[in-house]
TrEMBL record:
Name of a matching Pfam family: HisKA_3
Domain spans labelled Histidine kinase: 328-417
UniProt source species: Mycetocola zhadangensis
Protein name: histidine kinase
Domain of life the protein comes from: Bacteria
GO cellular component labels: membrane
């Protein structure tokens, strides 16, 4: 069963628009295993057509042949009595054909026909089991007001009208009928309640799946952005430098090409690692370990090679968990990439320090600061990814102008994760 489909029946709600419950061929498959006749777990493996016609045929077989047998065995009856008795016996099974689309009106009509059979037919015939199917269908498909109004009204009419017509209602018979109706109602309500719980659980499962999928998409986007943005920015800067110095300083051009090769290889390795992790290829992923704080010096050297004087100071007494180290590394990487691309800065500083049971990271530069148009362009996926990393770790993320000039990124995250 496709759990992404929406069921047309809201369990527990009363029918509207004359008791009609709209359902098409597709929604009927999702509306339950019985196609409108209550808790019929035995029908679950049957085709929809069989599930629809089974109550109709069963009611017909239980009501019509015994009625005809009684008529011809206990007669004589006049033709009108025979015609009325046969018509009433046939009517209720035929009414069940509409129970799937019109459960409310059907249960009301079946109740009226059952009353007519009880009060007008001059013999005690077979039980009107079509009424039971109609009650199950009505409650299970949301027409609860119709069901209770029909059952209560029918019971009162049967008792009082029968007494007025001189029918001898034995208390045991009344109690038996009342208990039977109560059992049917309880059975239908139990099925409706189970169905409602299943629908709620299904909805919670869908919401949980959507949340997990969205979180996974965001995680993939962060990883790919952080890997590619840094390396491509380095390649862009080095390529521009190489073109500029190609004629005058060929050695510098050769150095730029070597840096481009290194950056490209690093980016490819990290992308392969991310893709291998997504494919659950643990062997391939383990060959490209996730960066941690021990890789910061190499990262800072790559920015120094591109002309930014990066100072680094760490007073962290104890390394945090691997998850925190990866997040801090990526935030430093993205912050310095933004400095390289947007800040027009010559210097930057990276500071790591202990703050109670957390670690504070601060990245500053001497560039144009927050007010510049260039920095205003950085409010895209890069800053969003840094903020998400900090938030997912239970930390805080701040950015703005540094008191000493330039731009500042400040992150505080707990040292250990639950």
């Amino acid at each position: 069963m496709d759990i992404t489909r929406t069921d047309p029946v809201h369990a527990g709600s009363d029918s509207t628009a004359g008791g009609r419950v709209s359902s098409g061929r597709g929604t009927d498959r999702e509306s339950g295993p019985d196609h409108g006749y209550g808790p019929a777990a035995g029908f679950r493996g049957l085709p929809p057509g069989v599930r629809l016609w089974f109550p109709v045929i069963l009611s017909f077989l239980v009501q019509v042949p015994p009625t005809l047998f009684i008529l011809f065995r206990t007669g004589p009856y006049n033709p009108v009595e025979i015609l009325v008795a046969a018509a009433l016996a046939v009517a209720t099974p035929l009414l069940l054909i509409g129970a799937r689309r019109f459960p409310g009106p059907v249960v009301a009509c079946v109740t009226v026909v059952a009353l007519a059979d009880l009060l007008l037919v001059p013999y005690f015939g077979p039980p009107t089991i079509a009424l039971g199917f109609a009650i199950l269908s009505g409650i299970f498909r949301g027409a609860r007001i119709w069901v209770y109004a029909s059952v209560v009204s029918g019971w009162l009419v049967a008792v009082f009208a029968g007494s007025m017509l001189g029918m001898d209602w034995h208390p045991v018979r009344i109690a038996f009928v009342t208990a039977g109706l109560a059992f049917l109602l309880a059975l239908a309500e139990g099925a409706r309640s189970r169905r409602q719980h299943l629908q709620e659980a299904r909805q919670r499962s869908l919401q949980h799946r959507a949340t997990v999928e969205q979180a996974e998409r965001m995680r993939i986007a962060r990883e790919l952005h952080d890997v590619l943005a840094h390396s491509l920015s380095q390649i862009y800067v080095q390529a521009g430098m190489g073109l500029h110095l190609m004629d005058t300083q060929p050695e510098k051009t050769r150095e730029s090409l070597a840096n481009i090769k290194t950056s490209s290889k690093t980016a490819l390795d990290e992308v392969r690692g991310v893709l291998a992790f997504l494919r659950l290829d643990t062997d391939a992923a383990s060959r490209v370990p996730e960066p941690d704080l021990s890789a910061l010096p190499k990262l800072l050297d790559s920015f120094r090679a591109q002309g930014i004087d990066v100072a680094f100071d760490s007073s962290v007494s104890e390394l945090p968990s691997a998850r925190v180290q990866l997040a801090l590394y990526r935030i430093v990487q993205e912050s310095l990439t933004n400095v390289l691309r947007h800040a027009n800065a010559s210097k930057a500083a990276v500071v790591l320090e202990d703050v109670s049971d957390s670690i504070r990271l601060r990245v500053t530069d001497n560039g144009t600061g927050m007010q510049s148009t260039a920095h205003a362009q950085v409010n895209g996926s890069g800053l969003l990814g840094m903020a998400e990393r900090a938030t997912l770790l239970g930390g805080t993320f701040e950015l703005g102008d540094s008191p000493t000039g330039g731009f500042a990124v400040t992150v505080v995250v707990p040292r250990e994760q639950p």
